């Protein structure tokens, strides 16, 4: 078995000290709310992580706990990208120039760290909204396309194909709708008939109960295990095909098919 070390990039509301402590290895962290980034040598110190810790929404902490259990020993890059009032940190512009980084800039920063350290990566985005463009348009999709997508192996993004403020049987939230992203929804949710077909968004539909934001780590972990065990690497198209529209429980629990 060929093992290629794969980092987990977690983009969420923040992370408690307890959840961070259960990861074991945090190699970098970025707090978009405070505008501060940290890189380890090779890992971040306990003091740095204590100063970084905080999760007013208690969402990212739950996601991180699940990932730490599903992929023990993996290196983590943590990105706080949601404010205390649940607003996603997006790129801010002035006179045609970026004046404040958003979550996609932080994602690209994280991927660059992974490449520098010879790591593959899977990003877990347990959020979704309709504020950006659909069908792959918009700055956020453009940014992601610089690092991941068809023909760009070894760096995968997994996102929730729902929104907390809108439910629609046809429209799918960003970033899950973007072609560079594996969008994950619940099979029990209301979906248009064509969305149940393989190859259609959402890329993955999970059985069982939600909320989907806390089920995303299962797909992220499966993708990470598949990246670890594949010598040539996988792009988003190949990864979607391996995970499948309706992944079985063994794939989600172990990250491999039997």
Percentage of β-strand residues = 15-25%
Total helix count?
8
Largest sheet: 8 strands, mixed
- Report the C-alpha radius of gyration, rounded: 17 Å
Supply the number of structural domains. 1
**CATH architecture, please?**
3-Layer(aba) Sandwich
Helix content: 25-40%
Low-confidence stretches: none
Strand tally: 10
CATH C-level label: Alpha Beta
**Could you say what the CATH topology is called?**
Rossmann fold
Specify the CATH homologous superfamily. Answer: Peptidase S8/S53 domain
Shape: globular
Query: Mean of residue pLDDT?
Result: 89
- Measure the end-to-end span: 14 Å
Q: Structural class, from secondary structure content?
A: alpha/beta
The order of strands across the largest sheet is 3-2-4-1-7-8-9-10
| Run of helices and strands | EHEEHHEEEHEHEEEHHH
List the helices and strands and how they pair.
Layout: E1 6-12, H1 17-21, E2 26-31, E3 36-39, H2 46-52, H3 60-70, E4 76-80, E5 92-94, E6 97-100, H4 103-116, E7 120-125, H5 139-145, E8 155-160, E9 181-186, E10 204-206, H6 216-229, H7 236-243, H8 249-254
Parallel strand pairs: 1-4, 1-7, 2-4, 7-8, 8-9, 9-10
Antiparallel strand pairs: 2-3, 5-6
Helix pairs in contact: 3-6
